[in-house]
Design a protein that fits this description.
173 residues; alpha+beta; Trna Endonuclease, Chain: A, domain 1; two-stranded antiparallel sheet
């Protein structure tokens, strides 16, 4: 019976678990023992909420045009299988912070997206050859867009409303 290696949890899973425990004092956070399609289970009394965590660093690609974005991947098959069990996707992006002369640390940015909302948005996406949806979030002050989407429905590219939207998880209970 394979058991998830608890000594090597993904850093973002631990960061999000810590953030949930800090923000929701009346809830408990659990890590599943097996891969059941969720990374964290948040419970409050008899209610529970599955959370999937995706992490990425922020890429700066210099060329003719400076492109900056994170790169998060979601497997189409796992996404479809989790429509009933995953309540939220939390995308964690590590943005580099610069001091006066050089890079000093990372700033964590959280996008908290309800799974039903993400399901509407992946309709306009095409999964790659491996069946993977890729999200390329570009952070421009308070605006966050999925910058590689080519669609006329620009509102589906805008993720600004989900930045630090912890209240959506709170309202789910």
């Amino acid at each position: 019976m394979p058991i998830k290696n608890f000594w090597s949890l993904e850093p973002a899973e631990c960061i999000v678990a810590e953030e949930l425990a800090r923000r929701f004092k009346n809830c408990q956070v659990f890590f599943p023992l097996h891969d059941i399609g969720i990374d964290l289970l948040l419970t409050k009394g008899k209610k529970h909420l599955g959370i999937q965590v995706k992490e990425s660093r922020y890429y700066s690609i210099k060329g003719k045009i400076l492109r900056e974005h994170s790169w998060h991947q979601v497997h189409q098959r796992k996404f479809e299988r989790g429509l009933e069990t995953v309540g939220f996707y939390v995308f964690v992006t590590y943005l580099p912070k610069y001091g006066e002369h050089r890079f000093t640390s990372f700033e964590k940015k959280f996008l908290i997206v309800p799974t039903n909302e993400l399901a509407k948005r992946v309709i306009v996406k095409k999964p790659g050859k491996a069946g993977i949806y890729s999200f390329y979030f570009h952070f421009d002050q308070s605006n966050i867009i999925d910058q590689r989407e080519k669609t006329k429905e620009t509102e589906l590219m805008d993720y600004s409303e989900f930045i630090d939207a912890w209240h959506l998880i709170e309202n789910a209970f």
